[in-house]
């Protein structure tokens, strides 16, 4: 039950819950439009430089010139601060074949001709080493004048370009489109961190979140960002992986029920309740290409997140209650209990 409030009316008409919540979203949760524009422009410039590398250096990885943005920035579920922008860079996989493991998610790629664009990155048996491709991308990026003072490093699946002029880094992920008999791409292979490849398909992630958001009349993205902010800033529970959290909320709201309120904040209690419930269950990879998203989570961590989400669902419900009663100062106090740095 909501806690009691002083028997008074709120005389500060400017200090409304709606105004405070709007300012919180604008200035602390959502990316600033200028930041989004600069990141997209910087991404486009990078893509042009990668094409130039291909044209100038025959020893660089042969890319097709097609790029596919992915990750939370592309799906518009990123919260402040913007720290990374992900790009799939399509490789030319002509004259190569994929061999999938029976008991593993890993896949291997083998060239079928010495004229394959992947031949410089194949070992003596013709197996294409994704780590060699990543290393070549890393060395070629260092030659671009605008990037020479940037930090460039390699992770398991990507080359990370950390620009000095911006707060965000680019995760550049080489990808091999795998086609069916008709020539349609059925999934992509990206480096697995061990020299081989693993499956992914960001098209499915984008379609799922787009459809779910449309079913919720465009309100789901804002709700996801709010709960992501809580997940990152709150210290009352272990942090969920961003993609896992996003998937849980999409699964909970994807069919339009429960309906998300147009004023968003009134649906925050429901979002926490759904998170508390869904986090206790197994979470399949929505693409059907990898292990469960909760595969590395302990039961103890699930219980802690469940309890924290339920606790904050009640606090959020208290905030909604006092706003509906006209006590905005009390409502705002409860929102401060839910979201760090609210107000």
TrEMBL record:
<keyword id="KW-0808">Transferase</keyword>
<dbReference type="InterPro" id="IPR006116">
    <property type="entry name" value="NT_2-5OAS_ClassI-CCAase"/>
</dbReference>
<keyword id="KW-0051">Antiviral defense</keyword>
<dbReference type="GO" id="GO:0051607">
    <property type="term" value="P:defense response to virus"/>
</dbReference>
<dbReference type="GO" id="GO:0016779">
    <property type="term" value="F:nucleotidyltransferase activity"/>
</dbReference>
<dbReference type="InterPro" id="IPR043519">
    <property type="entry name" value="NT_sf"/>
</dbReference>
<protein>
    <submittedName>
        <fullName>Nucleotidyltransferase</fullName>
    </submittedName>
</protein>
